[in-house]
Every structure is written in structure tokens, then in C-alpha cells.
Amino acid sequence: MTRIALIRHGSTAWNKEGRMQGSTDIPLDEEGLEQAKRLGIRLSDEHWDLIYTSHLSRARETGAIIASQLGITNMKEDERLREVSGGQTEGTNEAERISKWGADWRQLELGMETEVSVWSRGLSFIDDLLAEHSGKRILIVSHGSFIRHLMKKLAPEVTLTEHLKNTSVTRFNVKDNNWDCELLNCTVHLAEM
């Protein structure tokens, strides 16, 4: 059995401003750094073999903080874990999108990455990961929209009723291509913040 935890990166200034980040490389803010530290402390009671992160700094920084707390030196980056591209919407907030393209902006072709593209790169990563690290305990630090899209394919029976929170943990036990979700969007480590 392989254990995989999908982790959303810590918070950024653009998260707080409601700006579409997509593939734009926005770093963690001070709160995001603290969230990652708290998650690292929480995970230090568990055994994890390695960490994969998106190449974008907000995920990479989150992963590095967790790795240092866990004493993991085997952290790898993979561009396939990047956030879903928002095309022309990146850097804008909802009011700016509505002002510029109207209330139905989501229906327009604005250069946003398609769901099929996200699934293709996400499932390619997962196939490679399971082939190389079967039976390991793996942390994956990525992005909210990417993780939601990937979960639709890996565990369609799991229903997310809210956005993934910053530094949330969603944990699966994987055996024979069955993804058993044992923890969903959990942020108990942030309770005191």
C-alpha cells in the first residue's frame, strides 16, 4: 500500500486579495510561512519518506519548511504539479474579471487551461510516482485547483463541499489503483492561529 497526502501550499498575498494566481509565481506571505511551519510540526509525529512539490515558489517553500521539520532531504520538484493556468485572468480579482469580461467570464475562452490538460499532466505524474515509489509514504505539495481536478479522477466518490484551505491535508491509501480517502481538507494544525 502507498500512502499519499495532497497538501495545498500556504497562504499568499494574492490569496488574501482574491486574485487568480494560476501559474504566476507568487511567494508565501508571513502567514503562509507560519502555516507551513505548523503543518511541519503536526506531520513530525508521522513517518513520511519523501516530498514532491510544484516548481512554483509558494508550493516549493511550503514543502521545504515541512521537509526541514521532518528531516527529509529527499524533496523533488515536478512542473506537472503546477497550478491550473488562469490565462488572461491571472492577477485579477472577481470584481476586475466581471468588469472586464462580464458576469459569465468563466464561459469565455481566456486562455485558461482545460480540465483535460490538467488531468493529463496530473495522471501522468501519478502514474510515474506510483511506478517509482510504490509502497512509500509520499507528501505532495501543490495547489488548490490542481488538487481538486486531480481528485475528480483519482477518487470521484470524494465530494469537496468547500475550497481546499491553505496547508490542508487530504490523505489517501492507494492499493491496486483504489484511492481510499482517510482525511479530507484537514487543517487541525491551524486551530490556534
From TrEMBL:
One of its GO terms (cellular component) is cytosol. The active site is at residues 9, 83. One of its GO terms (molecular function) is fructose-2,6-bisphosphate 2-phosphatase activity. Keywords: Hydrolase. One of its GO terms (biological process) is negative regulation of glycolytic process. It comes from the Bacteria. Substrate binds at residues 8-15, 58. This is Histidine phosphatase family protein.
